[in-house]
Write a structure and sequence with these properties.
single chain; three-stranded antiparallel β-sheet; five-stranded antiparallel β-sheet; 139 residues; mainly beta; 2 helices; 11% helix
Amino acid sequence: MARMLLVLTFGAALSAATGNADVSRAQQQPTMTPPYKVIPLLRDSVTGDPNKEAVMIRVEWPANVSTGRHTHPGDEYGTVLEGSVISQDEGGEWKTYSAGQSYHKVTGVIHETKTGDQRAKTINIFVVEKGKPLVQPAQ
């Protein structure tokens, strides 16, 4: 089966799953169902900083899908629960993260995450400024 590339960005999936209108506004593309399932788990203020919030999601990834290249206006922390994901920061090497391993994506760094021939599940936490879109597609 040919590798499926997500036509719409990861942000649209987050928007649909979390109800974040700001993410929707950041996407100037028609919406469509992403090839992975995003389950919202938490959205709450960050202690000591009323301008920031933490967003936690679980992602159920089918085989052979990609987020496309994108950035975040805050840090992303991920842990692989099942299977593995492959990720690359712009200019860096592709790295595979297997069940039990974690990764960190720095604010504003262009990156892409995808699966290989097997499904995966991850938990992802974003620490972002309130009112900012969680994801911005890279050009």
